[in-house]
Amino acid sequence: MGEIRKMAVAPAIQAGGSLFTPEQLSIIGAVTGPDAKIEMTSFKQLYLEVPAERYEAIKEEFERGGLEVYPTGFATKSLIACQFCKGAEEAGLETARRINQAIAGIETPTPIKIGYAGCALGTSEPLLKDIGIVKMRETFDIYVGGEPKGLKASLAKLLVSGLQEEALIPILTKIINHYKQHAKGKEKFSKFVDRMSLERLKKLAS
Ligand code: SF4
């Protein structure tokens, strides 16, 4: 067998949550073949192993079927969004899609998970992500540094609140770039937030 490359696949961000259509599952099965290893990750992406020389062709085929393809490993993951149960407009579906387009797949020192919740009920658990965005009626809050693993698990802390939609992507980009530039080796994002201090990151975001 030739060189194998990993690929992360997810359905589009949509009302109802992470929904695959039967056709999309058929495409995945047909393209990868009967012996493929297909892993469901904890961050709502399927990891597939595909022949490296067919990576681009497979990516195009998946995208034609409405699937989204992202890098695996040390990168920002696709946005882990809620199910938008309060309605696409009230819960900010288009905002979530725009955020995902802007921030998913950026190479980072460690994998970064970014959560989005369309209301303060936060059923997508945004405070357990490296970065969490919560829609609060007409504005948005951003939280940073959630750590869901280990005995020292902790919730993300409020970085900035009352944001208009247009402020979100510039701030998220700034935080991610700051982490890329100043992380010590493979420093976890939550440790980076602690080391930098919330106050300094607040200044960066303001
Ligand atoms: S976070 Fe709010 S809008 Fe989104 S699925 Fe949960 S309850 Fe519904």
UniProtKB/TrEMBL annotation:
Residues 95-204 form the Nitrite/sulphite reductase 4Fe-4S domain. InterPro entries: NO2/SO3_Rdtase_4Fe4S_dom, NO2/SO3_Rdtase_4Fe4S_prot, NO2/SO3_Rdtase_4Fe4S_sf. Gene3D superfamilies: Sulfite Reductase Hemoprotein, domain 1. It comes from the Bacteria. SUPFAM superfamilies: Nitrite and sulphite reductase 4Fe-4S domain-like. Pfam families: NIR_SIR (PF01077). Keywords: Iron, Iron-sulfur, Metal-binding, Oxidoreductase. This is Nitrite reductase. It comes from Brevibacillus choshinensis.
